Amino acid sequence: MLEMKNVTKVFNPGTVNEKLALNKFSLTLEDGEFVTVIGGNGAGKSTMMNAIAGVWTVDSGQILIDGVNVTNLPEHKRAKFLGRVFQDPMTGTASTMGIEENLALAKRRGRKRFLGSGINRKEREEYKELLKILGLGLEERLTTKVGLLSGGQRQALTLLMATLQKPKLLLLDEHTAALDPKTAAKVLETTEYIVNRDQLTTLMITHNMKDAITHGNRLIMLMDGKIILDIKGEEKKKLTVEDLLHKFEEASGEEFASDKAILG
C-alpha cells in the first residue's frame, strides 16, 4: 500500500544549516498493516510523514501509494489517497461549523459539490451512529460548533473525519501528544478500533514507547533519517520498553536520549 524507495531530503543545502533529514530512506507497508514510528528529535519522523503527504518535494527517490507513483504530485492531489490527523487538535476541523457540517465536508471530500439542501435525515442518522463509537456524547450535539469542543473531543472528531472515506493510507502524526493521559488513551482506543474494523493501512508517529509497543502490529525506529529497527509479529508482542531501549543501543551504538519517549 505504501512504498518509499531510497527517498532523500536535505534542508538548507549548501549552507551552515544543512540538514540531511531523510537518507536514502526505504519503507514498504503491506495492505492493512498498522505501523508505529518512534525516534528521537531530528530522527526524520515528521519529514517522512510530510514527504508522504506531499507537503514538500523530495530530492530523490520514489513514493508510491497503492501502486501509484505520487512522488511529483502536489499535496492537494495526494489528499484523495490519504487520511491525516495532526498533533494539534485545532487542525483538521472547521471551528466555526457544527459537528455534522464537519462530518459532511469529510464525506464529500474529493467529490463534485453542488448547491443543494445540505444535510439530509439519512446522513444525520449516519453521523449519529458514527459518533456513538467515540463514547463522548457528541451524537446528541450535532449542531454544536466544533470550536466549543475540548481538545480531546476535536481530535476524536478529526479521527472520524480522516477515516470516513476509508483512505488508502492513514497518517497519524503524534495525534495524542497534546492531550491529557486519560483523553489520549481514549483516542488511541478509538484509533485501534477504527483501524482494525476497516483494516486501514496506518502509519502512527508517537513520542511514547509504551504506546508504540502496545498499538499496531509493527514498530519501526528512526535515527538520522534511516530505519534502524523494524520489529513485527511475535517479537513485537513480547517487546518491553527495556527491550526496545536495549535494541536501540545495539543498533545505534548510543543511548536513547528522550526521557519524554521513555516515560511518556
Explain briefly what this protein structure is.
With 264 residues, this protein is an alpha/beta fold.
Notes on the structure:
- By secondary structure, the protein is α/β, with parallel strands linked by helices.
- It contains ten helices and ten strands.
- α3 packs parallel to α5 and α5 runs parallel beside α6.
- It has one domain: 3-Layer(aba) Sandwich (Rossmann fold).
- β4 and β5 form a beta hairpin.
- A six-stranded mixed beta sheet has the order 6-7-8-3-9-10, sandwiched between helices.
- The chain starts with a strand and ends with a helix.
Strand content: 15-25%
Could you list the spans in which at least 5 consecutive residues all have pLDDT below 50?
Answer: none
Number of domains: 1
Q: Count the DSSP helices.
A: 10
Which CATH architecture is right? Answer: 3-Layer(aba) Sandwich
Helix-strand pattern: EEEHEEHEHHHEHEHEEHHH
Structural class: alpha/beta
Helicity range of the residues?
A: 25-40%
Strand order of the biggest β-sheet: 6-7-8-3-9-10
Q: Would you count the extended β strands for me? A: 10
| C-alpha geometry | globular
What is the CATH homologous superfamily assignment?
Answer: P-loop containing nucleotide triphosphate hydrolases
Any idea of the CATH class? Alpha Beta
**Through-space gap between termini:** 30 Å
Overall mean pLDDT score? 88
Rounded to the nearest angstrom, the radius of gyration is 19 Å
SSE layout and pairing:
Layout: E1 2-11, E2 19-29, E3 34-39, H1 45-53, E4 60-65, E5 68-69, H2 75-78, E6 82-85, H3 99-107, H4 121-132, H5 151-163, E7 169-173, H6 181-198, E8 202-205, H7 209-214, E9 218-223, E10 226-232, H8 233-237, H9 241-252, H10 259-263
Parallel strand pairs: 3-8, 3-9, 6-7, 7-8
Antiparallel strand pairs: 1-2, 1-4, 4-5, 9-10
